[in-house]
Amino acid sequence: MYNYSFNSSDGNIVIKTPKVDNFSDIKKEIKQSVDCVINHSIYPNGLDITMSQLSDKIIISSNKELLKNNDGTYSFKD
Questions:
Q1: 64-67 LR contacts (CB < 8 Å, sep 24+)
Q2: Closest Cα partner for 30 from 18, 41, 22?
Q3: What is the pTM of this model?
């Protein structure tokens, strides 16, 4: 499992996720609490990603490595 953390000083983070023909093909579960929103998604290609959004940072856990692209965006290794 790969783990990443981004905070407000990192600016606007853009993560490119795999293209899907139908968004209903993504299995999603969202949990909310007073201090955190947890979004868990499983894509048809097997990408399993959990994003925990707190007031000061975002923590990402996934089964695939996150790579920084030349344009400053991020995408997951195939």
A1: 64/2, 65/2, 66/2, 66/4, 66/15
A2: 41
A3: 0.87
